[in-house]
Amino acid sequence: MAKVIRPSTDRAVRKRLGNLIDFVEWKQPNLKVTDVKPSIIHDLEHYFGKIRAFAPDVMARHIKELRAVLQLSLLDGHIERNPLETFTHTSKPKPKEYLSLADLEKLRHLKGLDESERLERDIFLFQIITGLSHVDLANLTPEKVKKTPEGLYYLDVRRQKSGVQAFPILDDECLETIERYKQHPKVRRTGRLLPINENQHRNRVLKYLARSIGLGFPLTTKTARDSHADLMLNEYGIAPDVVAASLGHTSSKTTLSLYARLKPETVAKAVTEAKRKKAK
C-alpha cells in the first residue's frame, strides 16, 4: 500500500526544493549534477546558515532533501556516487526560549511603535494567548469564533498540519484585538479574522520588538506557541492534557516533549498542594 503524504508535508518538501533551486542560482546557475562534490556542503551551510539565516535543524532538512535528489540521480545512472552519502547532521538543536509574564507586559506597554509594528505586536500577543501556529492563525475566519453557554469565547480550529481539533480560549485581550482590526483592509479583502502577514515579514518585525524590550533572544512566530505551552503549564498550573487539547495535540506527551516541560518548582508546588488537600 502506497504511503499517504499529507498536504502539509507535500508543501514543505516543495518549498525546500524551491529553496535548493535558489541555492543553485546563487552558487552556479548552470551547475550540473555531475559537478556536485562533497565540498558543496560548505556552500550549503554558508548559504542557508549565513545568507538565509535558517536554524540548524531547518538547514539540515534542506541538505537532507538535496541528498535524496542526488540519490535519485545515482539510481538513474546520472552519477556514480552520491557526494552527500556520508553527511550527518551533528549540531544539537538550540534550547527553547520562552517569554515570561513580565516580558509580555513589556511588549504590551512598548511605546513609539509605528502602525506595522503595533499590528505585529498585537497579533503576536494574540498568538501567545491562543497557542495557534502561524498558518492556523492566518486561516482563521469569523465563523471559527464560538461561545459556550456560560458566555466564554473560544476558537473551534482544525489544525492544518495534523487535522486535529484545537479549542483555544479567547480572553478579553483577544476579543479586543479582533474588534480593533475587523475593519483592517486586509481583513475586509480576505474575509479572515485577523490581518496576518507573511511569516518572514512577521519574524523580521518580531526581532526588532525583541531588541526593543531588551530580550536576550530573537522572537519568531514559533516562540508564541512555545511560550503559550510554557505559561499554561508553569505559570497557570493547567494540566498537561488540557494544554494538549488547547494546542491541538492528541497526547500530552507531544506537548511535554516538543513544546514545554514542567519546571521543578511547578511539580513541587503541585505535589505539596496535593498532600495538603489529602491531609485535610
Which structural traits does this protein have?
4% strand, two-stranded antiparallel sheet, 280 residues, mainly alpha, three-stranded antiparallel sheet, 13 helices
Protein described:
By secondary structure, the chain is mainly alpha-helical. The protein has 2 domains: 69 residues, no CATH class; 167 residues, hpI Integrase, Chain A, CATH 1.10.443.10. The protein has 13 helices and 5 strands. Strands 1-2-5 form a 3-stranded antiparallel sheet. The protein has a two-stranded antiparallel ribbon with strand order 3-4. A hairpin with a 5-residue loop joins β1 and β2. α1 crosses α3 and α10 runs antiparallel to α11. The chain is globular and about 75 Å long.
